[in-house]
Amino acid sequence: MAAPRRRFDAVLSEAIDEGLKAVLGETGREVVYYNLKSIYGLERESVSKNPEILLESLYRLFGAGAEVIERVILEKLCLKLGIKPENVKLIDFIRGIKRQYE
């Protein structure tokens, strides 16, 4: 099951990256990654393994506006997985998929 989980982490990483860029642009995306590294010690490559920290950071930076970013990331992720976007929180969706690989 390790290979499918690594594949999911890679797809999630792409969806996060694309979602941040779609909402915030290139510079905004880089600000988020800088914030994750400087405040949380989280490298860009590890964000998909720690989505809780990403979301905490987004809500600290953007308040309720983080919901828009969260929704766009979820839509990008569902598109990559070939499934219909669900009306759930991103973290709940990620946890549900990761449980399938445990």
The major β-sheet equals: none
Oligomer: single chain
How many helices in DSSP terms? 4
Structural class: mainly alpha
Count of beta strands: 0
Q: What percentage of residues falls in helices of 4 or more residues? A: over 70%
Rg (C-alpha, Å)? 13 Å
What does this entry look like structurally?
- The chain is 76% helix and 0% strand.
- It is mostly helical.
- It has a single domain, classed as Protein of unknown function DUF3227 (Non-ribosomal Peptide Synthetase Peptidyl Carrier Protein, Chain A).
- Helix 1 (2-40) packs parallel to helix 2 (51-62), helix 1 runs antiparallel to helix 3 (66-81) and helix 2 packs antiparallel against helix 3 (66-81).
Brief sketch in words of this structure:
The chain is an all-alpha fold.
